Amino acid sequence: MIRWLLHRETAAWWMVGVVAGVLVGLTVPAVGFAKVDPPKFMLGDMNGDELVDNFDIIGMELALTDPDAYVKLYPRLTDYKKRGDVNQDGMFNNFDLSAFEELLKEK
Ligand SMILES: [Ca+2]
Ligand SMILES: [Ca+2]
Questions:
Q1: Where are the domains of the chain?
Q2: Cα(8) to centroid of ligand 1, in Å?
Q3: How many angstroms separate the alpha carbon of residue 46 from the centre of ligand 1?
Q4: Residue predicted with more confidence, 25 or 104
């Protein structure tokens, strides 16, 4: 049986299977599928120290209430909307606060 698998990290199709008792494999670059890079941040890490803890609360609140001030304070964290979208609904807003609190409780 031959199967085609899409490997998103290499953006390639992989054909694997057994033909006449021999394991065979083939890769073909996938057209139309962009390589998917893993996120370069931790969800909820609003001060960019690669930890999610109580020190992120101020950053979370500032990003929600005054994004301009947030970017001035953390100029390299321009991806703050992705960092702060803790409930992963594609939007950064007050509905992320309860998910953020849950994230802090887990730590
Ligand atoms: Ca942090
Ligand atoms: Ca959200």
A1: 1-32, 54-106
A2: 29
A3: 5
A4: 104
